[in-house]
Specification:
20 helices, B_mannosylTrfase_Bre-3/Egh, 8-stranded mixed beta sheet, Glycosyltransferase, 10% strand, Glyco_trans_2-like
């Protein structure tokens, strides 16, 4: 075990009791949304000047478009608050005695990703067995990868770890590549080993994302609950919350910028995945799926698939409507090491999601919401306030009011929601860190930097869109993973 990984794991272990207490009492805040909304609404109504200029028409459209996703996100946060109020009626978590858990961890196996892989895998071995006496960790890697020797040593460090190597000649029937190809190999292996059963669950994790005792407890509570449900109502898939402890960050700027990600989990994903229809997609971390259900879908989505988790979710919507859920468990990842990696990561996601939105093999009723969200994302650079003011200066029209005063309500909702996502996401990331608190200046800094973060998010999204339009060859870019 490396010194870095051991030190990080030991630090996390010291914090486990306090972490469980803090996260059990957490619920999304209302005032961080309500206060900005009221201030923005009052200012917007006061400063409104009627305008029918082309700029006003464009802004009325693009600045109002996000409201669909915003309303869904608000619904998700309110659902969490309601579930937490009723949590006293839920059965406390207990060990899962009748189901088998497979933790699947695909990795590209490079030297710069191995430290994070080791940290993550060791956290599974430490924390999950308390609630899962029957489990295994499958580290899924490519034959001949850089860090093969280190990964093999990691596999020998515990009887719970198995290294699964994807042979270089392996091809799927549809020619799927990258991570989806590896996932499909693992899926075929489970079928061959007769593990594609209803009582076998596959927990999909990324190679830089660990777990804690709170993760294990929440996951066990979800799986045990399915045995008490009627077979026609039991869930087959669930998603938890991806958070970023401060200790895993090597770059403070990108750590603050990634505050938006856990907020998305407690908002859109909670509303949609939690109500049985993951039409916004899912992420590849803390995604649990029955092995028998995964066996009916697989991962063979073709050579253009680079957001395989989102495509799996849309396929699941069509085949198993109403059978997904959300659980209040957290996993612990790490933000990109540099702003450049941050943009590259978003570029790959946008590239794959745009292609998925145009994928006609998936019915439009499952794609349209994702399409609206992606359109809002890739239009980010063009609707940034700096770009709008520059266009207004060039045209001699600096009036940015909408064509109707009532639109101010929608704009206030949208902008207040953005502030809430960064504020609440930062709160979550600080909550799962060692001291459990935000530093006094971090909330102010994250709000002040929202215009900068939106440039990076929008730049990555727009570059991904351009690559799709240019029909460039798909690439699954894997950034370096901080230890």
């Amino acid at each position: 075990m490396s010194t870095t990984a051991a030190g990080g794991l030991h630090a996390h272990s010291r914090n486990t009791t306090r972490l469980a207490q803090r996260t059990s009492a957490w619920k999304p805040g209302i005032w961080p949304f309500l206060m900005p909304f009221l201030v923005l609404l009052a200012f917007g109504l006061w400063s409104y000047q009627p305008s029918k200029s082309p700029l006003s028409w464009v802004l009325t459209l693009v600045w109002s478009l996000p409201v669909i996703g915003v309303l869904v996100g608000i619904q998700g946060a309110l659902l969490i608050r309601r579930r937490i109020r009723g949590s006293s009626k839920m059965v406390p978590p207990a060990p899962v005695e009748k189901d088998f858990l497979i933790v699947l961890v695909p990795t590209i196996g490079r030297h710069d990703t191995y430290p994070a892989l080791e940290r993550s895998v060791l956290s599974y071995v430490e924390h999950l067995p308390e609630y899962f006496p029957y489990m295994r960790v499958d580290v899924l890697t490519e034959e001949g990868c850089e860090a093969a020797a280190a990964i093999d040593r990691l596999g020998m460090s515990s009887r719970l770890i198995r290294v699964v190597t994807v042979p270089k000649p392996y091809r799927t029937p549809n020619g799927t590549r990258f991570k989806a190809r590896a996932n499909h190999y693992s899926h075929e292996l489970r079928i061959a080993e007769r593990e594609a059963q209803d009582n076998v669950w596959v927990l999909h994790m990324d190679d830089d994302t660990g777990v804690g005792p709170d993760t294990a407890a929440a996951l066990a509570q979800f799986i045990n609950r399915q045995r008490r449900e009627h077979p026609d109502k039991a869930k087959h898939m669930a998603q938890g919350i991806l958070t970023y402890p401060r200790e895993n960050a090597v770059n403070l700027f990108t750590w603050l910028a990634d505050a938006v990600r856990p907020a998305d989990d407690i908002a859109r994903f909670r509303a949609l995945t939690g109500m049985g229809t993951p039409v916004a997609g899912v992420h590849g971390e803390l995604l649990v799926l029955r092995a028998s259900i995964e066996a009916t879908i697989g991962w063979d989505f073709g050579p253009k698939a680079i957001v395989e988790d989102a495509q799996l979710a849309l396929t699941f919507c069509r085949r198993y409507p109403g059978r997904s859920d959300w659980f209040n468990g957290r996993c612990y990842g790490a933000s990109p090491a540099t702003a450049r990696d941050f943009v590259k990561q978003r570029e790959r996601w946008a590239w794959g999601l745009v292609a998925l939105c145009f994928n006609r093999t998936i019915p439009l009723r499952y794609r349209w919401f994702l399409g609206v969200c992606v359109a809002t994302w890739i239009l980010g650079p063009l609707q940034h306030i700096a770009a709008v003011l520059f266009v207004g200066w060039l045209t001699g029209d600096l009036n940015t009011s909408p064509v109707a005063q009532s639109v101010i309500v929608l704009w206030s909702l949208n902008f207040a929601y953005v502030i809430w996502t960064y504020w609440e996401g930062l709160r979550l990331n600080a909550l799962v860190s060692l001291n459990g608190r935000r530093k006094w200046w971090e909330p102010m800094a994250v709000v002040a930097l929202i215009p900068v973060f939106s440039v990076l998010e929008g730049l990555g999204g727009f570059r991904g869109f351009l690559k799709f339009v240019r029909r460039e060859e798909n690439k699954f870019v894997v950034i370096a993973k901080p230890a």
